[in-house]
Amino acid sequence: MKTKIILAALIVLQSATWAAATSEDVEYYAVFIEGAKAGFATHSRTITNGQVTTTEAAEMTISRMGIQLNIKTKETCVETVDGEPISFSSEQNMGLGIAKTTGTIGRDGIVRIQNNDTNSQQTPSGQENSFAWPKGAVMAEGLRLLEIKNGMREGASYSAKIFSPSLLNAVDSRVLVGGKQDVDLLGRVMKLTKVSTVMSMPGTGEMTTDSYVDEDLNALKSTTPMADMKMEMVACTKEVALASYEPVEIVNKMFMASPEPIEDVGSAKSITYYLKPTGQAGSFIIPSSDNQRVQQQEDGTLKVTVSPVSAPAGARFPYKGPDKAILDATMPSRFLQSNDAKIIEIAKRAVGDTKDAAEAARRIESFVASYVKNISLSVGYASATEVAASRRGDCTEFSVLCAAMCRSVGIPARVTMGVAYVDDFEGRDGFGGHAWVEAYIGGKWVGLDSTFKASQRGGYDAGHIAFAMGDGEPASFFNLATTLGRFKIEKITVER
Q1: Which of 11, 42, 205, 422 is the most exposed place for a label (fewest CB within 10 A)?
Q2: Contact 290, 73 (CB under 8 A)
Q3: How far, in Å, CA of 361 to CA of 448, rounded?
């Protein structure tokens, strides 16, 4: 899960610096996590036949408990010289192959996208779907022109809706122009203007990227907080950017302490958590759900009570109700390819002859727990089809496969991101980033956790705190990145 938060912060850094260089040459940046060099990024902008093509790419190597993982991302935006969107593409390689999304914006305002990954059993043409282009959204060139229009006067501010090809979503942003500062660029000090971009999406908190730009609006340094860490991109020569570096160990830095041990967490009827803000800049949101009730206290503390609901017996599947949001949770998506032949086959095998939705979901949860044979931290983030083929990964891979299998038999399902309690993490007890599944059964969202089922813990329980629910898209990791590090668990009460 920690790798996914790194990806979310990397996407934010790329998005917030899109308006950078105007040069047609490739520009290089060194990427740092907590001051340690973790990789490099590149930026290029070219104009051909009245079209502006902007490409952002990054490569990082991190370590998860000694296991190295290489992350590669690439985004390309094609626009008119006036900043009107034409097309885009996004590539991500998180350990199991390349997942690529391409999109074309038609004159009718409809975005037609196509998804492909190298391990999918989809047809060569991949999956295709469409959505309406977010009104007023801009990509790289549009954002650059917006910066030019508003200028760099200290105190200036304006709003922008920045479309991210990786997120397949437009991020509402506020841009605030600050004063000039002396900025250290790897030993070279320059006086640059600070520009803060505050990014947020519905249902998430805020994340702020501080960029330091020169007179030509080139961003020479950018910083973004993620959980309790800081990611930086610093402009440099190609030689410095590509110079060797040691993988940064990130797991210990993203572990949340518990105020006290929780004995036999799986037997708890409910657990109430008191989350106290740490004062770190930016807001965060903890959502309420069927399993989780959130109450704001007078002192700003959030009281979060997790009471897992039981799946009612007798509910049938496939779901045939009228609720559009629930119906959407039965459809294939970019990371939950429930129409993939392999996923359909193993889902039918798991469910067998039962007609009861609760029993079918339990069988899928148990099937995935035993199907993923290689529980590996070497996988950054994979789609359901990749997991079905490789049978390896960690909690997110268990979850995308479980959710896709549920959807393939008509049980609405969503991937939930948050933290979960563990009683022995390198000798400590506390909360680590985690992913699990919620299936809609008999009018309630019921928790499923194939990862914990595989570890003999028993599955979903009151030791889980949810931060976001969705289709397993990177947008959910944006929520994690805006939440972790912004509170501490001050007190816990357990009801048996």
Answers
A1: 42
A2: no
A3: 8
- Going from N- to C-terminal start, the domains of the chain cover 2-250, 257-495
Strands 157-164 and 137-138: parallel
- Chain segment 188-222, per-residue pLDDT in tens: 999 999 999 998 876 677 888 999 999 988 899 99
State the chain's mean pLDDT as an integer. Answer: 87
Among the listed residues 342, 445, 436, 351, the one whose alpha carbon sits nearest the alpha carbon of residue 398: 436
Sign for the pseudo-dihedral over CA of 157, 161, 166, 169: positive
Domain 257-495: CATH architecture, name and number where available: Roll (3.10)
Distance CA 212, CA 223 (A): 9
Token pair 């022109």: residue? 145
Look up residue 224 and give its two tokens.
């973004």
CA separation for the pair 397, 323 (Å, rounded) = 28
Predicted confidence (pLDDT) at residue 124 exceeds the cutoff of 60: no
Distances (CA, A) of 372 to 232, 364, 391, 406, 488: 35, 12, 4, 16, 33
